[in-house]
Amino acid sequence: MPVLEQNDRRIWKRRDRATQMRIWLTWLVGVSILMLCWEYISRQTMWIFVLDAPQQAFDMAARMSNPRWEYTEVILVPMWDTINIATLGTLLAIGVAVPMAFLAAHNTTPSRALIRPLALGVIVTSRSINALIWALLLVLIFGPGLLAGVIAIALRSIGFIGKLLYEAIEEIDPRQVEAVRATGAKPAQVLAYGVVPQIMPAFAGISVYRWDTNIREATIIGLVGAGGIGIQLQSSVNSLAWNQVSIIFMAILLTVLVSEWVSARVRHAII
Amino acid sequence: MTAPADTPRRWRKAPFIAHAGWRYALYAGALIYLVIGIGSLSVDWGRVIAGLDRGGAFLGAFLQPDFTSRWNSIQEGMLESLAMTVVSTVFGVLLSIPVALGAARNIAPWPVYYVCRGIIALSRAFQEVIIAILFVAMFGFGPFAGAVTLAFATIGFLAKLLAEDIEDIDRGQLEAVRATGARWLQLMNHAIQPQVAPRFIGLCLYRLDINFREASVIGIVGAGGIGSTLNTAISRYEYDSAAAILLIIIAIVLAVEYSSGYIRRTFL
Q1: Residue-number span of the structural domain to which A194 is assigned
Q2: Per-residue model confidence (pLDDT) at position B5
Q3: Chain A 195-224, CB below 8 Å of chain B: which residues?
Q4: Which of B35, B139, B208, B247 to mutate to test the interface with A (most CBs of A within 10 A)?
Q5: In the beta sheet, which residues pair with residue A3?
Q6: What's the predicted TM-score (pTM) here?
């Protein structure tokens, strides 16, 4: 906190001039960027449609408010498919992500120079691409259906589970590993008795959390044809059947709440 | 001291679930689910084998991505995605703060608490893409619907985490500032804000990350951004352009992630 001497008087200031200028400059740049971005969006927007929005919203709410209950039977199987996509996708992801995590953690990797960067590359690539984009690509390869969905969910989850798990592996207590090694254990035994018990709680928490997230993701990948409730959602929205959309929303909401409850219970039991 | 002769000398790891009946029931249940689940996939192997060629073509396209022939629409989509990210993060953060203050049990009266918790639950229940479908139906196609979607999703995410932080603060500081006769706004500014600000800024940067990832996707349902360009490229089988778009997305995601990590490490 600088004190200025001016005409024999000492004036207290919170910040000196340079710091104050720097703060102003940061604000100026930040606000300018925001204005530029807003201007860009505004130019691409048909404001007539936006001004019309309240009426559209009332209209939609009115159409959604008398749900077509018979439609519930139609979406039972797609909802089951959605849950299957999320569960099988998570299992498949665990199968790939666990070895990846051990290859990527600096204390368990067989080669820091070669294999670790490769494993990290796999994890990063998987994490940066959204499940919906993976689904878009995989529908092209495998055709529309659940298989593309399962693999899309798995490909996105590998990065998530892999990243959190390798960080957990890197944070383990090295003395326990040392102790197991001192008994004459082989490398596989060191992993099984020194490392695995330490990361087991983190692993279970991460997997269940990802499963919960994947249920949400699985509700949308049907929009590009990769199976699940998204297909019904897409066709109902396209045909403006809002009374079916509200049934789908209720089904999704129920599933998400149940999966969130299960995931919270499991994580609570572990911690 | 000698061990009784009939005690097995071999040590065995304790089983995951102590009760054998429950253990085998769990294994059997998991196995049955796997069989039913995998059975429900109904894979058309002929189609998969036919599709593998396309998969190969796509992988090949990654080795020689085509940035030039669709550069105009790629550039436009990217700028749109970035603009949506910035605008939605800023407005989402600004709106999430009052919601979070209302959703913290220790400072909000109960009617406000339930209203704010309701807003958070509503915003968190649905995936961004589903919200985008609704907003596109309301606001029409384009980045405005996308920005509103992401801002709405940001409110739920940040307000929940910030409210939990506020609930965990040190009550002593709150008491001390209140004892000086501070008004409500001064209480927020001098007792609560200093305790939660560093973590909140970190969370905002994290949400910026997430918003960019989502902004590159919601274009698929018409909410603006690079997603629509990508969707067009893939449905036209222009793998090389699609590969270029994906590479740009990965590069920007990494850049955003590393710069936000750098900011968090150096300034917070």
Answers
A1: 71-270
A2: 56
A3: 216-217, 219-220, 223-224
A4: B139
A5: A12
A6: 0.84
A106 close to A166: Cβ distance less than 8 angstroms: no
Which portions of chain B are predicted below pLDDT 70? Answer: 1-8, 268
Residues ≥6 apart with Cβ < 8 Å to B159: B96, B97, B99, B100, B103, B116, B119, B120
Of A53, A57, A146, the CB nearest to B40: A146
Could you give the number of structural domains in chain A? 2
Same domain, A52 and A160: no
Instruction: Let me know whether A186 and A84 are in one domain.
Output: yes
Q: Is A1 on the interface with B (CB under 8 A)?
A: no
CB contact under 8 A, B42 and A146: yes
Does A77 lie in the same domain as A40? no
**Which of A49, A60, A244, A256 best tests the B interface by mutation, with the highest count of B CBs <10 A?**
A49
Which residue in the set B47, B129, B140 is minimally distant from A50, CB to CB? B140
A157-188 per-position pLDDT tens digit: 999 999 999 999 999 999 999 999 999 999 88
- As for the ipTM of the complex, it is 0.82
- Measured distance CA(B143)–CA(B124) in Å, rounded: 21
Over the stretch A230-258, which tens digit does the pLDDT of each residue have?
A: 888 988 988 888 889 999 999 998 998 89
pLDDT of residue A110: 84
Please list, in sequence order, all residues whose beta carbon lies within 8 angstroms of the beta carbon of residue B197, skipping any fewer than 6 positions away: none
A76/A59 same-domain check: no
Q: Which residue in this structure is represented by tokens 């929005």?
A: A53
Which pLDDT band holds residue A108 (cuts at 50, 70, 90)?
confident
Compute the average pLDDT of residues A16-30: 90
- Give the pairing type, strands A3-6 and A9-12: antiparallel
B140 touches chain A (CB under 8 A): yes
pLDDT at A271: 66
| A35 shares a domain with A101 | no
**Contact check, Cβ <8 Å, B250/A249:** no
Q: Do A101 and A209 share a structural domain?
A: yes
Domain boundary among A35, A64, A93: A64
| Chain A touched by B98 (CB under 8 Å) | no
Whether residues B58 and A140 touch (CB distance < 8 A) is answered with yes
Q: Is A189 touching B (CB cutoff 8 A)?
A: no
CATH match of B71-267 with 1.10.12.10: no
Is the domain of A11 the same as that of A86?
A: no
**CB–CB of A128 and B90 under 8 A?**
no
The answer to whether residues A128 and A218 belong to one domain is yes
The answer to whether A92 faces chain B, any CB pair under 8 Å, is no
Residue where one domain finishes, among candidates A48, A64, A80: A64
Angle, helices A115-128 vs A71-104, to 10°: value is 160
Q: What is the DSSP string of A18-66?
A: HHHHHHHHHHHHHHHHHHHHHHHHHHTS-HHHHHTHHHHHHHHHHHHTS
pLDDT value, residue B4: 56
Indicate if the alpha-carbon torsion angle B150, B156, B158, B159 is positive or negative.
positive
The pLDDT score that the predictor gives to residue B7 is: 64
| B231-259 tens-digit pLDDT | 888 888 888 888 899 889 888 888 888 88
